[in-house]
Each structure stands twice: as structure tokens, then as C-alpha cells.
Amino acid sequence: MSDPQIRRIAVLSGDGIGPEVTFWGIKALKMVAKGFNHQFIFEKGLIGHAAIEETGKPLPEETISICKGAHAILLGAVGHPKYDNDPSAKVRPEQGLLKIRKELGLYANLRPIKIFESLLGASSLKEEILKGTDILFYRELTGGIYFGKREKSLDGKTAYDTMSYSEMEVERITRMAFEAAQKRNGIVHSVDKANVLDSSRLWRATVNKIANEYPDVQLNHMFVDNMAMQLIRDPKQFDVVITGNMFGDILTDEASQISGSLGLLPSASLGKHVGLFEPVHGSAPDIAGKNKANPMATILSAAMLLRHAFDMEEEAAIVETAISDVLNKGYRTTDLANENTDQEMILGTDQIGNQIMEVLESKLFQSVVI
Ligand code: NAD
Questions:
Q1: Could you report the per-residue pLDDT of 200-240, keeping only the tens digit for each?
Q2: d(CA 181, CA 357)
Q3: Cα 243 to averaged position of ligand 1 atoms, centre (Å)
Q4: By Cβ atoms counted within 10 A, which residue in 28, 68, 85, 152 is the most buried?
Q5: Where does the chain show beta strands of DSSP type E?
């Protein structure tokens, strides 16, 4: 049956490997649209260094309006060595990223940490500890210490930052996390430092209050220092994790090592309106233009887009399984290969992209077409 609803997807490819990997994200979405009879319209916008070169601004007005008119945004990466080597540059590509998050009120950052069976041996952690890990982090993104009042004393010898949270800020991300847990394994761990910090005590009280609305979800509280340890000791115990901005920043980077390469990690940033989906990695200037970038993080971000922006669970799962199947066949990109990998199985961006599309096509047209 045909789905009459048109969904607009803004595509901000950005810099470095951004355009190379978003190319494959779009391909996957187009293939899904064909297989399920959805109508997706793609509109490109400039961001980052690419936007500065053309317009002088890291996030031109036109891009903001394309994003505001879209149902979802797929982003590649921003960043260019020219600015990394010049900390005094006033206009910088990353300003585009921060501004788009602010403009769209993207207060929740979602990072799934999942391990592909075929990559178990590639991690620095033991297989038996990792096997079965499937965590979804909800990190608060627009509050906390990164946005609080800060000051340096006149003599430059003292400085402070403040960590502040309002009930409203905690409530909205807590609801999102609990709703996700209802569709998963029904367990939420809330991370704070309530034994020391007042802002954490407010965080904990607010999470407790909201938890009453979700009696089917089991809530556990964990201090952030314990969480840092438990994540490595026994990651399987976690289902949905909810945490403030700075704790989440640190914990999600720690957790990224569970799934191995940066080239595999997708993310979503959600708010009141349109959501933004992007790989966790940056613009990787060292491999840009060399057909070496792993497009999987972006294709997995496209799967998150299907799941979280369009509520298309089946479509998202098919894309994820296609990636898993290609890895099961033994194909690797450079970032996933090690000394035991057969050289013939190490593929470039385009070759692995084509492999994923072939598998996706066979899955879509065998399970959907009547
Ligand atoms: P990076 O993520 O770009 O690269 C780190 C390392 O991982 C590099 O060796 C790179 O080759 C490798 N890598 C990253 N993505 C890969 C992929 N898909 N496939 C294979 N290998 C991959 O981080 P960096 O080097 O610290 O930063 C480079 C630029 O990206 C900087 O300008 C930085 O500001 C920017 N950056 C942007 C974002 C973003 O857009 N969200 C995030 C982080 C960094």
C-alpha cells in the first residue's frame, strides 16, 4: 500500500568525510522509501567550513530555514584543519553545529551502544563481558555546567563554573527516556552525584516524581563514579541510561569504546520539534577524499532517523540488520580491521557502501514486495 505522507529530510553534509558518508546515508533512506512506498524528499543545506567558504557564515539563514521546514535532519560532520590550527579564528565551523542545536532546542542526545557479534573479538574488553550489550544513553544537552554562569577572577588566579538544572529541564528528558524504556527492556538507570551536589538532588527527586507515571519501568539510581566503573565491569546490566550534560559527555565517550570504532557510532539529538541525526565522529580530515571512511555510523544514524523521527521501527531494524549481515560476511573498513583481517576483506567507503545496499535491497524486496 502506498504511504501518501511526504517527509522532508534536510541533509547537511558538512566537511571532510561528511559528504562521503552522508551519500550512503541518503542511499539507504532512498532504498527504504522504495521498499516501503514512503515518500522522502531530500533538501541540502550548507554548514561548517563548506558554508563559511560560500557565505562567510558557519550556519547560513537558508540552512536554518531548510531545517525548520524539515521533518528530520541528517548531518555528516563539521570541522577543518585550517581552524583547528588557529584557535583565534572568530568564525569557526563548529559554531554552525552549536547554533543549529540551539536554534532547534535539541535538549536530548541519544547514543545507542550496541555491539555487533562479529566484532566482539576486536574490542579491548573481554568478549564474555561485552556480549549482549545494548544500552541507549539519554544525555541532557542544553543545560548543566556547560551552560551555567562562569567567571574568572580579575587576577586570573581563580575561576568557577556553575551546574544548574531546573525541574522542567529534568522532566522533559526523563519522560523521553522512560518512554524509550517502555519499548525496550523496561529498565532506566539515572546517573547523578546526589551525595554531593544540590543540582543532582533536584535531578534525582524530579526523576523519582516522573517515574511514578511509568509503573511498568524499573528505575535505579547510580552515582556517576560508580557508573563509570560499572560500565566497564558489567555493561549488560544497563538498558536506558539518563544523565546530565557533563556526566553524559564523559560516560558516552567511555561507552563508545565498548562498540569499538568511532566509524560505527550513530547519534540523535531530539527536542520539541525536528530531530537531528549524525554520526558521533568528526570530519576526519586525515582520511577525507581517500575512500577510507566507514559510512556505517551515518547509515546507522539514518536508521535512528527512521525510528525516532518517523516512528518506522521495522524500516530502522532492516537497515541495522543489513549492516550486521555485511559485518558477519567478514567485510571490514580500515578502522575495523586488525592484523588478523584478510586484506581482501578490507573495503573502501564505496565498496562497503555497495555491499550494504545490496544486502538491504535483497531484504527489502524479499520481505515487502507482494
Ligand atoms: P574525528 O572523529 O574526525 O577523527 C578521529 C580519528 O578517527 C581519525 O583518525 C579519523 O580518521 C578516524 N575516523 C573518524 N571517523 C571515521 C570513519 N567514519 N571511518 C574511519 N575512520 C574514522 O576527530 P578529530 O580528528 O578529533 O577531529 C577532526 C575534525 O572534526 C575537527 O575539526 C573537529 O573539530 C571536528 N569534529 C566534528 C564533530 C562533529 O561534526 N560532530 C565531532 C568531533 C570532531
A1: 999 999 999 999 999 999 999 999 999 999 999 999 999 99
A2: 31
A3: 24
A4: 28
A5: 6-14, 39-44, 72-77, 108-114, 134-140, 150-152, 159-161, 187-192, 218-223, 240-243, 266-270, 275-279
Strand 266-270, strand 150-152: pairing:
unpaired
Per-residue model confidence as pLDDT tens digits over 88-139: 888 999 999 889 988 899 999 999 999 898 888 777 788 899 999 999 999 9
pTM, entire model: 0.92
Classify 125 as helix, strand or coil. coil
282 lines ligand 1 (CB under 6 A): yes
Instruction: Give residue 291's region: left, alpha or beta (phi > 0; psi -120 to 50).
Output: left
Separation of 179 CA from ligand 1 center, angstroms?
32
Instruction: For residues 227 and 236, give the distance between their C-alpha atoms in angstroms, rounded to a whole number.
Output: 13
Report which of 46, 268, 306 is spatially closest to residue 173, judged by C-alpha positions: 268
What is the rounded average pLDDT for all residues in the chain? 94
Q: Which residues are part of the catalytic machinery?
A: 146, 193, 225, 249, 253
- 265 contacts: CB under 8 Å, gap ≥ 6: 111, 113, 256, 259, 279, 280, 281, 297, 300
Pocket lining: 75 vs ligand 1, CB cutoff 6 Å: no
* Domains in the chain with CATH codes: 1-111+261-370 (3.40.718.10), 124-259 (3.40.718.10)
Which atom of ligand 1 lies closest to the CA of 80? Answer: 32
Q: What CA–CA distances, in Å, run from 152 to 40, 155, 157, 229?
A: 49, 8, 8, 33
Nearest to 204 by CA among 160, 247, 233: 247
CA distances from 161 to 24, 48, 118, 153 (A): 41, 28, 44, 12
- Contact between residue 135 and residue 238 where contact means Cβ atoms under 8 Å apart: yes
Q: What is the rounded distance in angstroms from the CA atom of residue 348 to the CA atom of residue 211?
A: 46
Decide: 78 in ligand 1 pocket, CB within 6 A.
Answer: yes
Q: Is the CB of 94 under 6 A from ligand 1?
A: yes
